[in-house]
Protein 1
Amino acid sequence: MSKKLVIVESPSKAKTIQKYLGDDYIIESSYGHVRDLPKKDISIDVSNNFEPNYVVSDDKKEVVKKLKKLAKEVDEVLLATDEDREGEAISWHLCEILGLDAKTAKRITYTEVTKDAILKALNNPRKLNMGLVNAQQARRVLDRIVGYELSPVLWKKVKPSLSAGRVQSVAVRIIVEREREITNFDSNSFFKVSALFDVEDKQGRRTVLKAELPKRLANEAEAMQLLEECKNSNFTIGNIEKKPSQKNPAAPFITSTLQQEANRKLGFPVGKTMSVAQKLYEAGHITYMRTDSVSLSQTAVNAAVNEITSSYGEEYVKVRKYSTKAKDAQEAHEAIRPTNFGEQEAGANFDEQRLYDLIWKRSIASQMSSAKIERTIVSVEISESSERLQAKGEVLVFDGFLKVYLEGKDEEDDDDDVSGMLPPLAVGQDLDLQEITGTERFTKPSARYTEASLVKKLEELGIGRPSTYAPTISTIQKRGYVEKTNRDGVERKYTVLKLSSNSIVSNQDTEVTGAEKMKLFPTDIGSVVNDFLMEHFSEIMEYDFTAQMEHSFDKIEEGETEWSAMVSKFYKPFHESVEDTIENADRASGERILGKDPKSGHTLLVRVGRYGPMAQIGAPDEVEKPQYAKLLPTQSIETITAEEAIALFILPRVVGEFEDEEVKAAIGRFGPYLLHKKKFVSITKDSELDPYTIQLPDAIRLIEEKRVADANKFIMEFEEEGIQVLNGRWGPYIRKEKKNFKIPKEVEAEKLTLPEVLDIIKNQPAKRGKSKAKAKK
DNA sequence: CAGTGAGCGAGCTTCCGCTTGACTT
């Protein structure tokens, strides 16, 4: 019997396929790409047709060794990597390292991991598609050139260790531009009018009908005028309009929509969604989670139909085919769905269970009938005004897919005020007015991005791939271009006019506006780098740069263009502008001159310095030694005012004297602190105190609290050995010569003896030392 | 652990897209 080796990309997939095939087949996994350009330098021979220097990555040496050995033992190797550009390239690299002839090697593909699909694929092997492989090489080489030529420009002109790239730099641009849009937004106020009427419901009970003025009124005077007219008006039902409508379910999940929905409904950051989904995938509960295809296999549709029929009834079934919107989608996999629809619950922990539940519901709902809704719009006439009010009602006639699942929204529309069922009403009916209010509202700028809504935007622009959304978002945060933070809102007053019992009262109310939770904000360094790249490398920063590139890749795939010719066409002008920029561009610091310091008369400016954003008094030509102060975490060089900048120089500030020594307040690397007798005391955020305004009594209290905490810190001490057992933030730990050691959970710290302590120190596992270990080499 | 911001120079940093583990301060 002849043996065959089938190579796929993912080990979980290998396991599944092994179940479908007999002992004649050995299914192994390549764990993704097996060769790549080394990290240390650009590794492309520009003068030799951009020849890439591919090497087997360190973490793939073992895999490659195993595959080589197996390839020798079998009669045939089948390349079953994903059916997309990257998958085709992996197969080609496998040929290269396994010594297979790329012209004759057997390539098999399938877009769903079902037994039928796999067997069909095995019977229809094809040859390697070198067009796809070459398009991938162009993609790889181009990304390397952009990343490895642009980043060093930033090291020279902005700050070391920064990075730029086709995907990440555009992601940062999106965030920077949105922030500026918000900063420059002029909020206008307007008035919304709504009325409450007393009416009888079906059972004859008094109930409330809410009606609104469909349009906005420009100002208080207009609102007041309408209310005045209403004072002496009668209100009657003018018209009742009923409109049947229907709602359709959303398509099954792909990576980007899963990330968005898990963020909206479960509050997961995108990286968490991916790692939880990975666990579900490895346990065999769901199909592959990195996909851009909304299609379901026939097997899956049948299973969903069975489940819907038995759980909800036949009238809830509607088989639907979804097509993928993104035009650059590669559709190498199915949509993300449960592998077994009969399994309503799965997952090893709460997070996995919740994510599985979401996937199960979304997939099931995608094959369910539409919800039927009857919308009613009732107009209310005002006898003394030409305006009309409107009441909207919605009745669910048939729930359909809503029985299971409704997609979440990114922003609540407060305009969309649909209340459920309306009471019975008749045309010409008179209405009893309870009250009418005119409420001042404000126009809002576009919302800041969350991780998930940024993924949505990137996907719309065709930038990035399912496997890179989460890593990209983490990269731009790691580089310090973007921060995910909360922001407190500010109070805002608004006017409410209320007409009731025939008199109009005007009141001021306050609301909190602009509060943000887990939103992406650009940092100053992010803005400075963005502006620099926009000025000197606008082509790469264009939102459609990737789309244009994809267009060229299509031509390579079709064999119209050589991949190196395409890269060359891009490289020449790009490299020239890199050299020109290095030669001629000024350093970028985002410097803004805010005016003069009133005390010294010297220039007051803000800029990004070596340690981040700072304010400075005195330009280099004015004074020998300028004064510097770091900006607060909430401030930015783009929006800080001169007053705020001057206030930064108040620190360090002497609060007063305590026990014959000065108490100083300042802000350091770890936030605000007090300094007294050479001891640091943090001014914690929750204490509502800050170093600018803190007074002596509060300062003394903090110092004394710290003394108590320090006193409780010591559990025991072995002075001769220089060992202490201390209470820390994460529980008790051992300290020796400035090194900390973890105490195993099961050990009671209070009862430790010296030999036990020494034992813990000796057996402490090495710290995670990836970077350190490498540095030593 | 907390205060820095001159200037020099060595050595380092960096991309995107496929995959999983090995780590948790």
Protein 2
Amino acid sequence: MPELPEVEIVRQSLDKKIIQKKVKKVIIRNRNLRFKIPLNFESFLKNQKILNVKRFSKYLIISLSNKGYCLLHLGMSGTVHIIYNYKKNNFTNTSFYNSPSLPTKHNHVEIFFDNLKIVYNDPRRFGFFEIIKNNKLLIKRFINLGPEPFDYKFNLKYVFSFFKEKEKNIKNFLLDQNFVSGIGNIYASEILFLSKINPMKKAKLLTKKECRRIVLNSKRVLLDAIKKGGSTIRDFKNISGTKGSFQKYFKVYQREGQRCKRLKCDGNVKKKNISNRSTFFCNICQK
DNA sequence: AAGAGGCCCTGATAGC
DNA sequence: TGCTATCAGGGCCTCT
């Protein structure tokens, strides 16, 4: 599901719901996510107050009152659900309202608060939880990731010099989290369309002008997607069950065979596998 | 060192 | 109906 905009939507709603609340109980039904959930996960979280929920790239960062952090990555199919309790201080399963949005299978982690619980669901189990003990280790955790598109460090100078001598195609670089972090397969295609660049083009061949368009459109597309509540394909929803709407504004993604949306362009949207990820682009206006 | 490819996993859908 | 193959929003690891 989740690229940076979708994770940001989850962050916003999660932050509102659990900020300043104390963790009462943690239940792990399946530890075997992308990485095994550590055995001290429950005790690390229990009785901690949630200071806030932040985000870096596609990672959610839950700050705890013990100065530690709980990291959550949603992988491909992770979703967070919120379930309200109608009996205060009663944690029997039946005391929670059945949420229509809560799947019956693959609810791997439940974190309980006084009047609600959050449930982590992930059919493919590509997502993961991590415990980070302090701020120093948190910074270290992300040291190898590139800047987010919004970061002032993600600028023309950075991009143009990064691409020098690089043989790899531009599409793969947008997905390379060590170059820029937060862009995924949907938004990579959309950014390249707006930038009029062919996804197969070698990075070293990009002009300064093209690099500038990459920088601007990366910021633009992701911000726009956040404003529209993210993209709902398959069944992404925010934790309250509301769908995003950015998928209505896709210019190329999942539009194979359809007319190019650029005015006066007679092109057609093509689909091509690049490093085993489907890539959509206009065969005429993306050079 | 950069870059390509495989792999982790389940579910939905298409095609026979 | 039931089988098989293919494809999904990610990222880590290995090999060349």
Protein 3
Amino acid sequence: MDRKSLIASSQAACDALSADDDGLKREVLSHAGNRWSLGIVYALGVSGRLRHAEIGRRMEGVTQRMLTRTLRQLERDGLILRYDYQEKAPRVEYELSEVGFGLLEQMIPLWGWVIDNANEFRQARTAFDKINPQQRVE
Amino acid sequence: MDRKSLIASSQAACDALSADDDGLKREVLSHAGNRWSLGIVYALGVSGRLRHAEIGRRMEGVTQRMLTRTLRQLERDGLILRYDYQEKAPRVEYELSEVGFGLLEQMIPLWGWVIDNANEFRQARTAFDKINPQQRVE
DNA sequence: CAGTATCCTTGCGGATACTG
DNA sequence: CAGTATCCGCAAGGATACTG
């Protein structure tokens, strides 16, 4: 995409966002930067319906607390569905919602783009850190 | 995109990410959830090179501190370029880098997707909050 | 004008221990 | 098994005041 049409389409996309939508946008997209959110979305997208413990096993390093919390946030935003079987030996399964699949679909080109530019990011980092020994960025 | 090909392409995209890349991915995408980052990227994308104060004027509600900090982070990640004219009356301009334009380009479909699903997100929220009066999610 | 410095509150992420 | 409860350190975001 050339810059003129890029700018035009970004204006169109941004003008369609009200002030309320702006907050919503950041809340939804905050999952992108979260430690576990997208990993869980990916796991559920690839494997379908999974039990709590099974997700935990696939997310290397996650603690019970963070797993539960992240699942709650995803559920709250409607990205995953929670099925509690109400059995005495607890049994809860999670599944991507339609919107959750949509998010996964949106993320794929983004991941590809990050990979394609990984070296540029790393170079920018080291160049910045060299110029700004340890001041700045706090 | 149907689910089978969605899953296949997400696996391809995710397998291409090493453990290191995974951290990088979250760092880059964390801008998506930040309060001011994408607003600044958008402003610079639409208007080209801008002075510090001019950006501040366009970002309703930003404080000096957050503006400077966010600009530093964007600069550190190579998304924007900083031009200090070294004049006695300070004069600093910022501009999107090539990578920064790339990010803006990546974000546009994402914004559109959020708008298209805004009602679903809001409904999920209120439904969740009704079921979970004030427990959960902390 | 383009920042720093200081103080504050909130939430993220994690460690550990406990429960029905 | 699927969570809570309690603790911690750190960073995000903001309010306010100051500086070359």
Protein 4
Amino acid sequence: MDEKKPDKVIPFSQPKVSCEGCGMFQLCLPIGVDLEEFKELDGIIQRHRILRRGEYLYRAGETFHSIYAVGAGSIKSFTSLEDGCEQVTGFHLPGEMLGLEAINEAHHPCSAKALETTNLCEIPFERLGELSQRIPVLQTELLKVMSKEILHDQSLLVLLGKKSADERLAAFLVSISTRYKQRGFSAESFRLGMSRNDIASYLGLAVETVSRLFTRFHEENLLQVHGKDITICDEVRLHAMAQNAKEYSGHNARVQ
Amino acid sequence: MDEKKPDKVIPFSQPKVSCEGCGMFQLCLPIGVDLEEFKELDGIIQRHRILRRGEYLYRAGETFHSIYAVGAGSIKSFTSLEDGCEQVTGFHLPGEMLGLEAINEAHHPCSAKALETTNLCEIPFERLGELSQRIPVLQTELLKVMSKEILHDQSLLVLLGKKSADERLAAFLVSISTRYKQRGFSAESFRLGMSRNDIASYLGLAVETVSRLFTRFHEENLLQVHGKDITICDEVRLHAMAQNAKEYSGHNARVQ
DNA sequence: CGAATTGTTGAGCACCTTCAAGCTAAGTGG
DNA sequence: CCACTTAGCTTGAAGGTGCTCAACAATTCG
């Protein structure tokens, strides 16, 4: 795990970049791991697994080995219900992790599928466990990532439990926008990798409702919508709406 | 479990029972921690914090120090929205843990309040971190508990995203029943510590709807309902309903 | 280019919410 | 101990939000 032959530079073809060379470097395991420690971590990570649109990363029921970090592209997590329909439980954008919900069990409780061509880092959980035994910061980071996931799910609970359809879509867009921004991408313009169906499932709405909302948001000059390409026009109002759809309308929300 | 100094018996007043003496012993940190290790864990746990009905364990925004395990009684977790109304995010029964969602932040993202007289063990997170650095099994267990929480939240997402009111209440009752059973209590008869309002919030429904459902379930001989005291009469049908309300009705669901 | 999948739009209706009133239970003070 | 107050629960009636069904448009893909 320590001694490294100079295999860092790979001839060509497969873009096998080490974490240090990866744009997502500070993002996957955010901070505080010093360089020596980091090399150990780098050593266990299996880099650049690539999936094409529609391919599965794992399926519900498969045995759990690794957690994953998204490099470029996007992934959806979902559970399939008895009657065949899916409930989308999360979208994973560049720099985000997935697979954490499986740690408790021997097998994955949900499936993960690429929404577009996506590359990921695979982190064998067994070895990550050993490693974080030795590297306190790593343990803390791991717990934080999991805690963050819990937090995210709970904010989703509020969304599904209390919010109207308007508020849900607004909150969804704000969330995506914020996450892109954190990763250094544009917060105003982005492409939604997922289908309207996926969005509807995630937000607990019918597809038709989501579709109607997009056109209405467009008419109200909140957004520019061209299929999957979204541009946020009135960020302030969208934020206000994400919290409370009734108060926003008409008069501008007070400008922060 | 073998050599014990006679410090087990405490003079009197404050019922300061060690974990070994606690009925929830194997439940909080389920398994596999050997005795020596366990004593270390036992050493950092602050036992028997007691709350009366309505008292807060912590409030949203307070700084995070500890996670908690419920001994007897029950706790609700909830976030308060801008407009004052609450979204209940979880109920915590004997043997279950709470506070995990705060690990990522310095402060608690939600509040926790006792639904009845409740005693808890407080586990300072800082020291638990150090300890699990030394005791691999403990680290694994901690991750598992968190992963389980994620899993639970995700099953709730499905509930709120896809299920009808009938299915939601049925699933809720099945969940409570199952959890009591796991802890060695009756799976058929139990008292719901929370108000109808709390249940409604948790399930994303109006209070009136929940109330109506209880009376309907009673009329259909699924349950006996006397205020907060519930007895499950037709467990099979309730289970079937929790998954798919339409298929269940009339004809018996196939018996497992 | 044609087939298939995905997205949009419209109309009607169902489920659940909202509003409103009465009821029960619990806690308080005289 | 009872009257009073208050909060919580139940029940009814009306209305709206979002769903279902259905047809059509647009996009993707072989």
